[in-house]
Amino acid sequence: MNGFDYSVATDVDALLQQMAAPGAAAVDASKLIAGGTNLLDLMKENLVRPRQIVDLNRLPPQAIERLPDGAFRLGALARNAATAYHPELREQLPLLSTAILAGASAQIRNMASNGGNLMQRTRCHYFYDAGVPCNKRAPGTGCPALDGLARQHAIVGASDHCIATHPSDMCVALAALEAVVHVRSVRGARQIAFADFHRLPGDQPELDNTLAPDELIEAIVVPPSQHYAAHSAYLKLRERLSYAFALVSVAAALDLDADGRIRSARIALGGVAHKPWRDPSAEALLVGAPATTASFDRAAAQLLQGAQAQGVGPGSNAFKIPMARRAVVRALATAALGTVTNTGDNLP
Ligand code: SF4
Question: 309 C-alpha to center of ligand 1: Å?
């Protein structure tokens, strides 16, 4: 067990000053904790050894608010469960509610914060094994997944340095709904489009996102999306029905006219890349098209253009390429029939 100092943040400005202090950004110098549903795993595995833990749970940004323009402002410290079960949000953003409820377990969702959901690290099993090299954990040491077990790994957007995937369900829906991440530091506030928040691994797989070390997530704002409320679906395919990360997941939303033709569409994939995977050119193919399997398959093919299998032998994830294509078609077809709101835990 590694010893660490523990402190409770009660004032955002004071916390930002602390985060901007010289040396504060050093690896393992200090870690922020909210729900702790990922950080404590990392500490137990001895992968992260912070000298200080700063508890955020007394800070104010914990509310889920409706803004005057109809957008939802999700406080960074609001719990995943409180977000998923917020009555107005469930009605207006069923895609987001359903995606959150597809993740983890009821107990974890009760603890996990919205900001923490964005910041969680990959569940690549090599990353969690301190006995093997890993470019994300220790840059330059190598990536055993490239020649190993890659069922959970990426088929799009990967690099020779890392083929890990982002594990979140919530973030897949937030990507489809074009959320905006509001962050703050001593230098001021800024907004990050969700598509730009998480990053592809490239030659710096140790960086999961574009948040600066001294920046704090204050809120996630989801713009008004009522026109997608009636036709959305979150489909999650995994190794077992409950409490497992996605092999492939799809957040799909359609805006249909009275004749059943598609006015606009949103599709994002989880479990296939280092970030939620979205390609507006695939969605553009659906505009004006009938809501048919043929239309959906064209969009799926475009979304998965350039997909490549990783791993070798029985560890290969080649199966995920056709699986993802069929999952996109099925999720869009389900959305076209009408939204079915998830009312319980881990419904497929
Ligand atoms: Fe590490 Fe990424 Fe390779 Fe996994 S895929 S072992 S996280 S470098």
Answer: 15
